[in-house]
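Deliverable D4.2, example record:
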Amino acid sequence: MTPSSPTQSVATKTKRARKKSASVQNHATLSLGDIVRISFQRTLRVSEEHSNYLPPGLGSFPLRSVSDVKATDSMQDRGGVVLPIYQREAMWMSFDSTEPIALQIATGLVCAVTGKPLQDGLNADEQNYVVLPDQPWLDGFKTADGEVRQFVAARLGDGATVEEQLTDRPAVGGIQIRAYRLTAAARKKWKAKQNRQRRHFSNDFELLTVSYCMSASVSDMGIGAGGRITQEIYEDEFEFADWEIEPMSQVWVHLVGARQWTELTGEAAPRTPVTVEEYNDAGLPWFDYYDDDKNDLPASPELAGVKTVGQVLGYEEESEGAGVSFVWPLGDERPGKPVPTGTW
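Output generated by the structure prediction step:
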């Protein structure tokens, strides 16, 4: 891939970002350089007929490093982690960061913010990333002002994934993540600002690190668009030149079906989550979140026209392997299992 001209506009910097390793902690959390923690949350698939509040987290998807499973050649080449997910199952991503991070997120190498091909770098003209810790989670594709379309799993080849609708190349599936740090000078400036704020609000100031929880064989899976969810993706408040040119870390998340998960890991796949009806019948809450001080990014024209998984595949449900047992975490394994970066 070729970087865009906005990316090249900061090429006068001579220092390169030092690569930091990625790891899987507690079999469910992706750690990037011990700075960023990402979990992939199982959730309710919301209605495609109307706008919805934020759905709850129903526990993290299990993750395994490709180096710890019987990975295929393509998995080994790309590195990263493996995650089991059912056809039409929904997810959202929870973020936690100890410092500002620009996070590129793509599905099938299509940017979830812009709907354009994933670039080898940040874009100054059209923001192709989210900024942590201001963005505590992401539930879907940026398709409208103040809304996203929910991340919903779909088989490659059925035409329901966003990448199959927006590209004419062979589909690759999965989720791709790149993390960029501030430059050393920008980090120093940011830390000084945090210290001033702590001294001024020493009794009640706390950094925002929100985790948004309550307290047939499918070998190739991608992500399609589901129902509309009320959510903003915030504009970057830093100067573009404050960000490093190269990512500190990148990870490919391979999405696999239940049977392939068992073949790769020797473990049973998780059960399917509860339905919206079961959740509502239990009287459990939905969620809302906004920040008056942040500006929402404009909607992506490319993503605004994508068809939903229901529109492509129809609304009749498929069997999802009832009766399989849960995968339970096996305890704390800090500093975590290393995740190979791979090439992509």
